[in-house]
Amino acid sequence: MPRFSANLGFLWKELALPDAIAAAGRAGFQAVELHFPYETDADLVRDACARAGVELLAVNTGLGDITAQERGLGAVPGREADFQTQADRALAWLRRAGGRMLHCMAGNVTAPQRPEAFSTFLRNLRHLADRAGDVTLLLEAQNIRDAPHYFLNSVDRAAELIEAVDRPNVRLMFDIYHVGVQDGDVLTRLQRLLPLTGHVQIAAVPSRHEPDEGEIAYCNIFRSLDQMGYAGWIGAEYIPRQGTDAGLGWRGALTA
Asked: How far is it, in rounded angstroms, from Cα 83 to Cα 68?
């Protein structure tokens, strides 16, 4: 049976983070994952998770300069020092809050930067992985419709980078929404890349709403993950059609 975590970057977004964690626990989630929680004290998050009976899974590294529309810094040539500073901050926050996975955001690059961006991200990830200890670093490909300049725009390219990094604590975050929009052939790719996968995320394709609509038959996805022996978490990272609580019926409907 699938184990679902609530991604509080999208779910209960109207609540303060400790209150959103409590709401996730009341709704029956046993884990949460966050986007950019750094304005909330890590001790408050740890305590809120303990009270709610949920596990903190993951956070993202920082976006960089939001006014410049940066989307992370991991693959951006010339920003290596800034990436390591942000990653160290994220690692320290994550450890204090009790989490165990860090999504390393690649960032936006220009077309001329792309050849150098791969080697930049490779060096940054090796350096970070060697000091991350028991924290798992996650890489996620993002589709070009939502993120046209993002360096990692193919799940196969992300897998290539993970294999090149060659560190056991660098894994793939297989986001089925992004893969469905960008690459398609989701089940074949999922089966091939599962040995590299540390986390799975879901949302409807193409709307990014609850996973009970759209092109992906998630009941088949969940059944296939069970058959493949996937024992990790599945992150509910979708934009609710209305309120979060009103849309949670998909969990029972798709796993019956």
From this structure: 15
Is pLDDT above 70 for 68?
A: no
pLDDT tens digits for range 224-238: 999 999 999 999 999
Q: How many domains in the chain?
A: 1
CATH number of the domain within which 226 lies: 3.20.20.150
Q: Which of 55, 140, 160, 163 is catalytic?
A: 140
Query: What residue numbers bound the domain in which 228 lies?
Result: 3-255
pTM: 0.96
33 is catalytic: no
Strands 136-139 and 170-175: parallel
Q: Which of 55, 70, 210, 237 is catalytic?
A: 237
Q: Note the pLDDT of residue 185.
A: 94
Residue 128 is inside which H or E element, if any? helix 114-132
Q: Is 215 a catalytic residue?
A: no
